[in-house]
Write a structure and sequence with these properties.
single chain; 212 residues; mainly alpha; 7 helices
């Protein structure tokens, strides 16, 4: 399924404004004696400085960031105004030639400061001062001890109830144990008693405890 492409008015406006500003900066740099690729590099330099300022303002609204924002804004806005017919591009004044020639060094300085200056240091909280004790008041000579509430100890697990063995089964087991002692000369163990009676292991242990 294809998605319909809808033009964004804000994006279109931004592209148009950027293209016009880019062209005005190029024309001004070319009129000031910067020809060839150098004239195209000036608008790129101004735009990169604006990007660096924007990234800095996202994390810190410092005076340094606002200063270089004004510098980049004046460079871009000044070129737009100068090329609107208010300045004779065939006879550019010397002071403007000096500004255009010195712009690369100025932009490099601003971009370096914006990229490498650390953020403002956040002061650590002041240490808490010790409480002042009034020596004139005996009851205030020492701080009151803190009352600590002890948590109750965990309850011990309850012992399992003793297994009830039918007396008839105990009598039968005793006969089996006597017969085993007579035949082998030793007391019957729990495993043998369990096998002879065919009962569970826990029940055989309870009967063996009563026969001991």
């Amino acid at each position: 399924m294809t998605r319909s492409v809808r033009p964004d008015a804000v994006l279109v406006q931004a592209v148009i404004a950027g293209a016009l500003s880019f062209a005005h900066l190029h024309d001004l740099a070319e009129a000031a004696g910067q020809t060839g690729w150098k004239a195209w590099a000036y608008p790129v330099s101004v735009d990169l400085l604006l990007v660096a300022v924007w990234r800095r303002l996202r994390t810190e609204r410092s005076g340094l960031a606002w200063f270089w924002f004004l510098i980049a804004l004046v460079a871009s806005l000044g070129a737009n105004i100068a090329t609107a017919g208010l300045l004779d591009l065939d006879h550019v004044p010397d002071w403007l030639r000096i500004l255009v020639a010195g712009w690369p060094a100025l932009a490099f300085l601003g971009g370096t400061l914006l990229a490498h200056q650390p953020a403002d240091h956040i002061p650590a909280p002041a240490p808490r001062s010790a409480p002042v004790v009034d020596l004139d008041r005996p009851e205030a000579s020492a701080p009151a001890p803190e009352i600590t509430t002890l948590e109750p100890a965990p309850a011990l697990p309850e012992a399992a109830p003793a297994m009830t063995v039918p007396p008839a089964l105990v009598d039968h087991a005793r006969k089996v144990a006597t017969e085993h002692r007579t035949r082998t000369g030793s007391d019957i163990d729990t495993a043998t008693l369990r096998a002879r009676l065919g009962i569970p292991e826990d029940l055989a242990g309870a009967i063996a405890a009563q026969l001991a």
